[in-house]
From TrEMBL, chains A, B, C, D, E, F, G:
Annotated compartments: Cytoplasm
InterPro entries on file: Chaperonin_GroES, Chaperonin_GroES_sf, Chaprnonin_Cpn10_CS, GroES-like_sf
GO terms for MF: ATP binding; metal ion binding; protein folding chaperone; protein-folding chaperone binding; unfolded protein binding
Name the UniProt record assigns to this protein: Co-chaperonin GroES
Native species: Sporosarcina newyorkensis 2681
Record Pfam families: Cpn10 (PF00166)
Amino acid sequence: MLKPLGDRIVIELIEAEEKTSSGIVLPDSAKEKPQEGKVIAVGTGRVLENGQRVNLEVSEGDRIIFSKYAGTEVKYEGTEYLILRESDILATIG
Amino acid sequence: MLKPLGDRIVIELIEAEEKTSSGIVLPDSAKEKPQEGKVIAVGTGRVLENGQRVNLEVSEGDRIIFSKYAGTEVKYEGTEYLILRESDILATIG
Amino acid sequence: MLKPLGDRIVIELIEAEEKTSSGIVLPDSAKEKPQEGKVIAVGTGRVLENGQRVNLEVSEGDRIIFSKYAGTEVKYEGTEYLILRESDILATIG
Amino acid sequence: MLKPLGDRIVIELIEAEEKTSSGIVLPDSAKEKPQEGKVIAVGTGRVLENGQRVNLEVSEGDRIIFSKYAGTEVKYEGTEYLILRESDILATIG
Amino acid sequence: MLKPLGDRIVIELIEAEEKTSSGIVLPDSAKEKPQEGKVIAVGTGRVLENGQRVNLEVSEGDRIIFSKYAGTEVKYEGTEYLILRESDILATIG
Amino acid sequence: MLKPLGDRIVIELIEAEEKTSSGIVLPDSAKEKPQEGKVIAVGTGRVLENGQRVNLEVSEGDRIIFSKYAGTEVKYEGTEYLILRESDILATIG
Amino acid sequence: MLKPLGDRIVIELIEAEEKTSSGIVLPDSAKEKPQEGKVIAVGTGRVLENGQRVNLEVSEGDRIIFSKYAGTEVKYEGTEYLILRESDILATIG
């Protein structure tokens, strides 16, 4: 299992075909192309200067839109994942 | 439904024709051209270092002026939206 | 009505002719030319990390000097305005 | 009257002749040339993250040395002034 | 023994062969290639502005994925180590 | 008298001859050459975000080593001084 | 005696021969080469925004690894020293 640190999340990409069924169509010409993913795991959140941790706004299973060039790809047990920071997420869907 | 995170908002663009009727005319030669939009959804606000969230100053339905090159375009269920940060909003109209 | 957000202000420019009458003459050769304006509307102020809002130091009707290339021009109901941040204001006059 | 905002100050430049009489001679070859001025007006000070304002260390009438390329020149009622931030002041003289 | 300072950690790299057995395969074409390592020692954590130290989220023995070009290589008593900051760690595995 | 502001200090340079007598020899090839000086006056210290001022660690009369290209030279009543920030000081000697 | 300020430390370099005996071998090809040193003196620590000083994690006599191009060389009473910030230290040894 991949367990992201701090304000990071692990997502699985949702391919364009799925996107169409969920109603999202992203313009090809957009310079910073957003993409859709499904949250697999979330970190414990970033630590504020008063020592408090901020829970992430997204949870396992959420569908999200994120900026295309954000994050780092990893392949784990045969599946490709993307590790993002919560600040790379634009919105949740649903 | 698109639900923006943190201090982000989802807006629908208001076309130039509508703008004229609302009284806003933006000069073509302006380098950083502002634009007009209608707020569709707002995030829960950013988190301060004391753990407190700051509610956004805009609400669903507000008409706003924002900087042209700000934000990311997404198409959801056949409609085009723009996802901005609250700091990209210059003013509300009305 | 334009209502600026946070620490932004909406001003009307005061033309050079008016400036002369008010006593301000700005050198043409200055690289970062300041200009004069009249405050039309002010935002609610920026939010500090302790959650407190800081009221702006300027109020509707104040005459101000600001840096020339600051802000974004908008035209609303036939009048041209400039939307600035309070930090772009150098001084008030009067 | 020019009233500077925040941690800004308005000064009148003190010409080189005066400088000699006050004992300050500045080397011509210095890359960041300091200069001398007299404080005409001071702002209310910057606001800390706890909401407190910090009074400026200089007062009306103080003679100061500041970095040459700092600030913005304005001409008001026939006199040239320079508007600086307090952080551009190196020292007071006297 | 190497004892890292603050929010730093000392890791041993896990070679590609081991990676395959643990199920991680990293794409060769990725620009910022992640890598796998085993935590050997952790620092005492960074100090917040309120004076509190934040314990690291990883412990000795954890397997981690980190960004390839992060950290500094050192060789100590015949073994090669990498010294990273906790912020260079993307996720733990297992 | 020159009275530096905030975390600034005024120093007199100590020439290379004196340096030898005090035991400091600085390599000519060093890119960021440190230098030696004597503290003439110190500011009241910088202001923290809680409103507290931090007294400088150096006092009038201290001998210090500082980075060569730091600070601004001024000539006052026939003597050359250098105005530095405390952060430009590397160490005290003695 | 050299007394470093704030979060600075004074170290003596430990030459490559000594390094071999202590077991550290650093690869020649490393771009940011770490090096080994012995702590001679430590500062009083940096000041947090709440006014508290943070004691350094290293003490006189500690052996440390630091990044090669960090710090400033000085020669004092015939011995060469390096003045670093604590953040330039990667780890202690022993």
